[in-house]
Amino acid sequence: MSEKIDATAVLVLARAQGHHWVDEAVAGRIAAAATAAVQAVAASLPKETTELLSDPAADFMATLDALAEPAA
Amino acid sequence: MSVAPDEIAGWTLAGVAHAIATRRVSSREAVQACLQRIDRWQPHINSFVTVLAESALAAADRADTVVASGRALGSLHGVPLAHKDMYFRRGRVSTMGSKAAPPAATTTATLLERLDHAGAIELGTLNMCEFALGPTGHNEYLGHCRNPWNPLHVSCGSSSGSGATVAARLAYGSLGSDTGGSVRLPASVSAVLGLKPTYGLLSGFGMMPLSYSADTPGVFARTALDLALLLKAVAGHDARDSRTSHRAVPNYPAALAADARGMRVGVPQAFFLEQVTPDVARAVEASLRVLAGLGAEIVPVPVPSSEHLTELSRVLVYAEATAIHGARLRERAADYSPQVRVRAASGLGIPAPVYAQALQQRPGLVRQFVETVFAHCDVLHLPTLGIPAPTIAETDVGGAAVMWDKIAVMVRCTAPFNYLGLPALAVPCGFTDNGLPTSFQLAARPFAEATLLRVAHAYEQATDWTRRSPTLVSQRTHGLTR
User: Contacts of residue A71 in chain B, CB cutoff 8 Å?
Assistant: First the structure.
């Protein structure tokens, strides 16, 4: 994926949320960082759709516990 | 016979705790020794925000009264510590490194309460990157915290004051926080140990939030035993933080009795050893040879694709940081420094489904990482910071676009473990060509802190890196002293 997040879109979203201090230059820097992050998530997405309802935060804690070093 | 203050300040945390308990020195003498060093060092490294001399001395006198009474003592009784200025104490303002700090706290952080209960004394609050947003140690509001080994260089961050303070022997240990490397990076460039525990081992109640999903309180000390004592005092479930684990807290100091023989130390075959400078690589490789000499088995291990983990971590941190900072940014954006303002607002560019997907993938990715890596080894051995500690000038980029590249280089080996929630420990292992400290990093399965500390303890028995300390003489050679 090579599409970049549009700084103008970031600017509009920022203003809509009351961040009137965000100007075009700041929006451009936010867009640059967000582009890399969004691309990384897209590249690591699993092929299958999740079919089961779950709470990612609770699942994460349970997974850490399940993967823990066995007690000595 | 009385002991010289600098000698007392040079003892380890375990050493001074024993000396106080056995009345070789008083807690007042230990506090005074640290205060005297703070007076000398603070003008050069700026690691403290507030020095609580009066209350620390009063607490020391109370601690000495308890010792004299013969009553049972806590594990840290009378020991002076100092913490990153983002742990709340009722009635006190925590600056969080920012002009935009909130008013005085109405509650006290769980970890501070636990340290109080163990008998520790709080010497003061420590410098940090503004709102913990930054890996270098820059702070335009409080002034930069400088590296005690060479004040022209960064102390790294965001727990900048914690690494510098413990390294300069101004306190025996410190709490920091680690959302992308903020404990391990300052520890690495200061020649002290820095532990980011498993997500959920330590309570974050009363700690400034940056990211609900990645924030981890962390601990600094000069030795593995000192870290073990601190960790045992603060670890465990907290009803006020639903993220904390219900697992029983191990006896970390006791785990150090075992040595490194038979431990499988894994060397990653991808990603983490790439983009490492030759001088850092030399020091990290030499530490492997030491561990091998101690009887550890060095094994190459496959590592799942880790290219995306830092960015996945970034998605969580920025989306959540922008949510946390939203109201303050709207009202007080001008009170933030330019770089921090942009970083705090970066979540404005993260679409909600992308954030949800980064959260959703986390359990599967940590399972894949642990099952792939720790099927082959007990600890993974890798660099902490793949480059020598840069100068303050080299990393003074403000809010410019190049900021993202500088940050990415610094957190390359640390941020993945925040996303994965795994414990990771920075262990000093020498110096780079510019004379600044460097370290290796050990990572392990969830809740395997005792294993990390065991390997680090064995390593430090065979080397002297943690016994070396910076001197003010070296400061003068850099022309920054009066």
Answer: 248
Token pair 């593995």 is found at: B224
B251-268 pLDDT, tens per residue? 999 999 999 999 999 999
Cα B158 off chain centre by: 9
Q: Which of B155, B158, B203, B213 is catalytic?
A: B158
For every residue of B35-89, DSSP letters joined together read HHHHHHHHHHH--EEEE-HHHHHHHHHHHHHHHHHT----TTTT-EEEEETTB--
CB pair distance less than 8 Å for A17 and B348 = yes
CA distance B243 to B240: 9
- Structural domain boundaries enclosing B338: 13-477
Q: Is B313 a catalytic residue?
A: no
The answer to whether residues B172 and B79 touch, using CB atoms and an 8 Å cutoff, is: yes
- Chain B nearest CA to A33, separation (Å): 7
H/E run at residue B462: helix B449-462
Is B431 a member of any domain? yes
d(CA B65, CA B41): 30
Give the residue from A4, A8, A44 with the most B CB atoms within 10 Å of its CB, the best one to mutate: A44
- Cβ atoms of residues B267 and B297 within 8 Å: no
Let me know if residue B32 belongs to a domain. Answer: yes
Separation CA B137–CA B127 (nearest Å)? 9
Query: Measured between beta carbons, which residues in chain B are less than 8 angstroms from residue A41?
Result: 308, 311-312, 315, 354, 357-358, 361
Taking an 8 Å cut-off on Cβ atoms, the answer to whether A60 and B365 are in contact is no
ipTM tops 0.95: no
Can you tell me whether residue B248 is helix, strand or coil? coil
Give tens-digit pLDDT for B438-466: 999 999 999 999 999 999 999 999 999 99
Number of structural domains chain B divides into: 1
In this structure, what CATH number is given to the domain that contains residue B113? 3.90.1300.10
Residues B250 and B267 sit within 8 Å (Cβ to Cβ): no
Q: Is B227 helix (H, G, I), strand (E, B) or coil?
A: helix
A58 token code pair: 């609770």
Global pTM value = 0.96
- Catalytic: B337? no
Distance from CA of B349 to the nearest CA of A (A): 5
Contact assessment for residue B209 and residue B86, using Cβ atoms and an 8 Å cutoff: no
> Per-residue pLDDT tens for B14-45?
999 999 999 999 999 999 999 999 999 999 99
